[in-house]
Design a protein that fits this description.
Elements lengths: L8 E5 L5 E2 L8 E2 L3 H14 L3 E3 L9 H9 L6 E6 L6 H14 L4 E5 L5 H6 L6 H21 L1 E5 L4 E6 L12 E4 L3 H10 L2 E5 L3 H17 L5 E10 L3 H11 L5 H13 L4 H10 L7 E3 L2 E2 L12 E4 L1 H14 L1 E7 L3 H16 L16 E2 L9 E2 L3
Parallel strand pairs: 1-4, 1-15, 4-5, 5-6, 6-9, 9-10, 10-11, 11-14, 11-15
Antiparallel strand pairs: 2-3, 7-8, 12-13, 13-14, 16-17
Helix pairs in contact: 1-12, 2-3, 3-5, 5-6, 6-7, 11-12
């Protein structure tokens, strides 16, 4: 059975720094609110998403705390939360991870974020050069993994010193919750091959994704390991291709050239992330070159840092593009759309049937067997039709 025969593992996104219907404007923007995040998580849980990514930055709610809150209001949903080496000790992060895995009954996924914004890292007290951050991360996860897997760790390293560290309570998952990670530099690929279970790429054109997958596979083989692969994408799915492209245009319909220039300046000057620069080069801040590959649209990246591309089209079109990524080895999608509550429904209702994802719970019966069509929700209920 080929990789394209298997349904994708499909996660959604919790927009913990805020949400909206349009990029680059306050019009119809939604402030970050815990009750709203709960609505999105519960919808994702019900619709068939396997999990949610909770982002991390100074502009976001703290991911471990938000995941613990959302776990109490969901049943099956997994939570991909960030471990940021250097912002706390590996022993402390191990306690956080073990506790969250326990209180969620084994629903924790761990997203390694080594860094990207030099300015933000400096605010957290991290001043290591780009590649040296990966040396630090290797030592960090020597301790972190050992604690979660055995309850004990000891290291007298260059960056990390943990003398006879202990973890009292093990996680639910064995040997520990899986590690996810994304990075585009050579140092990042070497780190991924030696450390993680799943490597994540942002939504680049398939040929570029194929190159990254090959590089990480080579690194993993050198370490005697295997790694699986996922992709982080936005989605604009409508009933027809024409409607989808019109929705993409509307998303940036209030976006000014001045706002684009300001966002691009920040991305160029405050980040040493290779992946961020690859995202930026797809469009170079220009509105007229946004379809960078068939149905892959870079309009989100005009103002958004991080993942900046969306798949745009009808369910059949987007499913075909996803199968192209699956053929390369992608088995996981971390998705989002604006606004996230409504688009969670739209993607699930339109795209999931095309890619073989079914809701985790069968719907309740709406009749005693009579054929019905939706009648607008009036007092008489649905319209019964001839069998």
């Amino acid at each position: 059975m080929t990789s394209t025969d298997q349904p994708l593992d499909f996660l959604w996104f919790i927009p913990s720094s805020g949400d909206g219907s349009y990029l680059g404007t306050d019009f119809l923007a939604r402030e970050g609110d815990p009750d709203y995040f709960r609505e999105i998580a519960q919808a994702a849980d019900r619709l068939g998403y396997s999990g949610v990514l909770i982002p991390t930055s100074v502009a976001c709610e703290e991911s471990f705390l938000l995941a613990a809150n959302l776990a109490a209001y969901t049943q099956r949903l997994k939570f991909l939360v960030a471990v940021r080496p250097g912002t706390a000790s590996p022993a402390y992060y191990a306690r956080l991870a073990s506790s969250l895995d326990r209180v969620s009954r084994g629903r924790l996924l761990l997203n390694i974020v080594v860094g990207g914004s030099a300015q933000e890292l400096a605010g957290d007290g991290i001043f290591l050069p780009h590649d040296e951050r990966y040396d630090h991360a290797h030592e960090f996860f020597d301790v972190f993994n050992s604690l979660l897997e055995t309850g004990h760790a000891h290291l007298d390293g260059k960056h990390i010193k943990a003398h006879h560290a202990r973890l009292g309570l093990p996680p639910v998952q064995t040997p520990r919750p899986p590690l996810y990670f994304g990075g585009s530099s050579g140092a990042a690929h070497d780190f991924a091959g030696g450390r993680v279970e799943k490597y994540l790429t942002w939504g680049e054109p398939p040929a570029q994704v194929a190159e990254k997958i090959a590089s990480v596979r080579k690194s993993a083989a050198a370490h005697g390991r295997q790694v699986t692969f996922g992709i982080r994408l936005h989605f604009i799915v409508r009933e027809t291709d024409e409607e989808a492209w019109a929705a993409a245009d509307r998303l940036i319909g209030h976006l000014s050239d001045e706002t684009i220039a300001a966002a691009q300046e920040v991305q160029r000057n405050q980040s040493d992330s290779v992946g961020q620069e690859r995202m930026r080069r797809l469009h170079d801040g220009r509105r007229y070159r946004l379809e960078v590959s068939p149905n892959l649209w870079a309009g989100v990246g005009l103002v958004r840092s991080g993942a900046g591309t969306a798949l745009v089209g009808s369910p059949a079109t987007v499913a075909a593009r996803l199968r192209e990524y699956q053929a390369l080895g992608i088995d996981t999608v971390i998705a989002s759309g604006y606004p996230h509550l409504e688009e969670a429904y739209r993607v699930a209702e339109l795209l999931f049937p095309e890619i073989g994802i079914t809701p985790p719970v069968a719907p309740l019966r709406s009749s005693f067997g009579e054929k019905q069509v939706f009648g607008g929700g009036g007092h008489g209920g649905n319209v019964k039709t001839a069998p």
